[in-house]
Amino acid sequence: MVFMDFFAMLPLFFAQADQVPTPAASENNGMQYLIFLIPLLLLVWLLFMRPGKREQDQRRKLLESLDKHVKIYTVGGIVGTVHSIDREKGRIVVKVDDGNNTKIELLLDAVAGVITEEKKES
């Protein structure tokens, strides 16, 4: 019986579907959304993109400043002295033990930082 009522109402449903109300012409043509969208995009750029760019520049300067006999540490925790750098291949050879003359070849991207020797003032 419920199906009969549904099928009986079906023509009424389609008759009303043809009469879709048209939206009235509004004065808001999207400019109000741009007023909110542009400052929001600017805020996202200032908070997320710009600090990342600054960090990339610092990292690039660090890798460009590497030279022989500079003490470095890697992202894996290896501490050693730069023996040679091949910038075209992106490789660096690090001397990790002076006694045995042990050297490791690493990717240049594995360098995390430079160790600076701070002198103690007495």
Q: Mean pLDDT, rounded to whole units?
A: 81
Rg to the nearest angstrom?
Answer: 33 Å
Order of helices and strands: HHEEEEE
Give the overall silhouette.
elongated
- CATH level-1 class of the domain at 67-114: Mainly Beta
**What is the CATH-assigned architecture of the domain at 67-114?**
Roll
- Work out the strand percent: 15-25%
Q: What is the tally of beta strands? A: 5
In helices, the fraction of residues equals 40-55%
Write the topology of this structure:
Layout: H1 2-17, H2 31-65, E1 71-74, E2 79-86, E3 91-97, E4 102-107, E5 111-114
Antiparallel strand pairs: 1-2, 1-5, 2-3, 3-4
Quickly list its features.
single chain, 122 residues, alpha+beta, SH3 type barrels, 5-stranded antiparallel sheet, 2 helices, 42% helix, elongated
